[in-house]
Amino acid sequence: MTTLLLAEHDGTHLSPDTARAVSALAGLGDIHLLVAGNAVGDIAAAASRLTGVGKVLHSDGASLAHHLAEPLTALITSLAGNYEVIAAAASSTGKSTMPRVAALLDVMQVSDVIAIDGPRTFKRPIYAGNAIQTVETTDSKIVLTVRTPLFEPAPEAGNAPIESVAAPGWSGRTRHVETQKTVSDRPELGAARVVVSGGRALGSKDQFDAVLGPLAEKLNAALGASRAAVDAGYAANDLQVGQTGKVVAPDLYIACGISGAIQHVAGIKAAKVIVAINSDPNAPIFALADYGLVGDIFTLVPELTAKL
Amino acid sequence: MKILVPVKRVVDFNVRIRVKPDGSGVDLNNVKMAMNPFDEIALEEAVRLVEAGTATEVIAVTIGPAVAQDVLRTALAMGATRAILVTTDIAPEPLAVAKILTRVARDESVDLVLLGKQAIDDDANQTGQMLAALLDWPQATFASEVTVAGEAIRVTREVDGGTQTLELTLPAVVSADLRLNQPRFVSLPNILKARSKPLSQIDSATLGLDLAPRLKVQRTEEPPARKAGATLASVDELIDRLRAQAIL
User: Fold this and answer.
1) Which residues of B touch A149 (CB under 8 A)?
2) Cβ–Cβ < 8 Å for B7, B36
3) Which residues on chain A are in Cβ contact (under 8 Å) with B19?
4) Taking 90 as the threshold, does the pLDDT of residue A238 lie above it?
5) Is the pLDDT of residue A149 over 90?
6) In chain B, positions 180-239, which contact chain A (CB-CB < 8 Å)?
7) A96 pLDDT band (50/70/90 cuts)?
8) I need a surface site. Which of A251, A273, A304, B101 has the fewest CB within 10 A?
9) Is the pLDDT of residue B184 over 90?
10) How far is CA A81 from CA A33, A76, A85, in A?
């Protein structure tokens, strides 16, 4: 079997999600990596170094500039005849594009794959991660998205050939107006080794930044937030961790003033070590934290920061 | 402008689900059911577009057994103009749902389909995109802001690392994310009023579509449990433990 994997990138850099998806799919056979975008030659070159990639397909064109689902779908379906498996990371691009591809190929997509049990058998979470389903696809082609934070990135020791593929035309019924990136010098939430996360108990945006910022700084950690903290405006939308936000799998997750609603817990279960700091000893987060500190976050977090 | 809002009947989001011990699925007996929260957000947005004079009609549609009428009554109480129940005796997968909705959207000549980004039971996040593909309409997923301007719709959507604004030529498909709005509470007078609003039925078997499932669910199981660890007495003890484990 050969897999066509859509590479994940931001227009300038190949995302670590791509290397993680490569290792997730390695068991299914040869992988051809599709690098699609506008002026992404450097990204195609970086992609060719990933171990486990047999070939890089490089498609360059203005229609592919903003990861729009429609032209990406046109590109992928034009290549689909050569592949048994078509895959992408379960990123916003992958989630938007792959079901379109699947529908046009008349197959059911397998979403958010967390384990591959066999050539046609996959594990995926349902009910916000409260149950795990094992599904076998009966379709002739397999279309899937991978929950990449759960997999180690493939190393960069390869040297795959790069082949050019024509970019599709686009009708323009979807017009890109603007993309606003959140500017941050912290590590990206989905790929960070350490995540420092805060809940509604932080009380305000200023306190959220003042209490958690220095700890994140010291640990070179990404900042995360519960849905309650995001809804209250203490943290930006894209910092939300949980079923409807980002799923993270850091080595260390420090939950500060987070009660542990099931949706939040669904997003952090894969963390290696979870530390919870909360004044409520009955908070559900303590039922899954490896280490718990019961007490005032406004005292304990600064103390932790100072002593590190 | 005519808006179609597909709403799915799912286990209420407050319910802690139970996996059946024999691995055959999730226990749905005597469990409280409700409208999928993301669909509720989509419906709220559609009703607001009617209230703003932008849209003329909101058609709520669900696919399922007769009992799924209850979410349509809720939709009517929230302000949908009328409702359609497409009956099936199987639980259709997103691809089958998209095929049924394609037919409904065409038959009703709608200009916009607004639906939740995902259902909180299967968490598939596919139906809107599949529907857009089958209709060959433009799509915007994960909408956090929607404004209509003539023949186009402007959607701000949440993407990894920020937001993106797209302008779609109508007809189009838009899927709602959490922050699009806060759905209204349904008042008793509106629940009573909803009883007399039109609700029609279509038997999915009469549509001539291939709705057979493509995925065989072999097993459903509890996720590996994380055991509660130690409650520590001090910050120093925490640092010692993390250092001992080479986490710091």
Assistant:
1) none
2) yes
3) 130-131
4) no
5) no
6) 213-223, 226-232, 234-236, 238-239
7) very high
8) A251
9) yes
10) 15, 10, 10
Q: Looking at chain A, how many residues does it have?
A: 308
CA distance B31 to chain A (A): 14
The pLDDT assigned to A169 comes to 84
Q: Are B9 and B71 in contact (CB under 8 A)?
A: yes
Contact B247, A272 (CB under 8 A): yes
Nearest to B179 among A96, A237, A292 (CB): A237
Binary contact (B123, A112; C-beta < 8 A): yes
Model confidence at A186, pLDDT cuts 50, 70, 90, reads confident
CA B199, CA B176: separation in Å to the nearest integer? 24
For residues B114 and B7, give the distance between their C-alpha atoms in angstroms, rounded to a whole number: 10
Instruction: Work out the average pLDDT over A7-34.
Output: 96
Rg (CA), chain A: 20
Q: What is the pLDDT of residue A37?
A: 97
Other beta carbons within 10 Å of A46: 19
Distance between CA atoms of A211 and A207, rounded to whole angstroms?
A: 6
Q: Do B214 and A107 touch (CB under 8 A)?
A: yes
Instruction: Select the residue of B26, B178, B227 nearest A131 (Cβ to Cβ).
Output: B26
Alpha carbons B27 and A126: distance in angstroms, whole number: 13
Nearest CA distance, B14 vs chain A (angstrom): 10
Average pLDDT, chain A: 94
Give how far A90 is from chain B: nearest CA, Å. Answer: 10
- Please name every residue paired with A226 in a beta bridge, in sequence order, or none if there are none: none
8 A C-beta contact, residue A277 and residue A295: yes
Query: B219 contacts in A (CB within 8 Å)?
Result: 133-134
- Cβ distance A92 to B230 less than 8 Å, yes or no, reads no
pTM over 0.90: yes
Q: What's residue A172's pLDDT? A: 83
Give pLDDT tens digits for B95-136.
999 999 999 999 999 999 999 999 999 999 999 999 999 999
Provide the shortest C-alpha distance from residue B38 to chain A (in Å): 10
Q: ipTM value of the model?
A: 0.95
Asked if the Cβ–Cβ distance from A68 to B177 is below 8 Å, we say: no
Cα–Cα distance, A271 to A212 (Å, whole number): 19
CA distance B126 to chain A (A): 5
Question: Residue A183 — pLDDT band, cuts 50, 70, 90?
Answer: confident
* Average pLDDT of chain B to the nearest whole number: 96
Question: Which residues sit opposite B164 in a β-bridge?
Answer: A179, B157
In this structure, the number of other CB atoms found within 10 A of the CB of residue B15 comes to 14
